[in-house]
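User: Here's a chain of 212 residues. Predict its fold as tokens.
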Amino acid sequence: MARAATFSRSLRLFVDRNLSPDALRAEMARQAIAARDAVIARGEAPPSWRRYVDGKADAPETSVRLDGAILYRFNLTGEAAEAALALCRSTSPVRSGRFRDAWVLICDDRPWKQPLKDLPADSTILIVNPLPYARKVETGALEPRIRRNQIERVRQTLMRRFPTLIFGKIFVRLGSGIAPSAPYILRGASGERRTRAGTVMTYPALEIRLKK
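Assistant: Prediction complete.
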């Protein structure tokens, strides 16, 4: 699919001004729908969208004012999530491949098992690696030679590709059911972690949200 996230397109409609107001609105609606379907058919936009007519969500196209506007906001959450997972995996340090293959997607606090294209546009998405050493990989504490801030680098890349979405780096607690290795309970150790022994580890995560 083309990078639909980066374009905003306005169409100037040419209609016969001799038509009645209702006929004019019907023609404006027909042309808007045809233009929407055309960009989807060409692969320039995903097939999931929400309609705004004169600023009102889900209003029918035929209710548009003669000087109004019909806007389609395409759902790019699935495409962004797919790109995020691919980047997290491709930039992961690889020894056994276990860390690279462990990334999971969480939608509104639950693992998402359905096709990514069906992700709801208004949901909060987390991309997280549930392995116990994920935090050490991100902070560079595991091995000095491993490049740190993997999630931040992925975030910066996605911000440029999908400007209509918000990407954040956060630390989250994972409940049971996300992965067999989570949640991880910190054990006693030297230094600062000694005082945190017995607490649940927080995992670095990439958060994806729609701009309001």
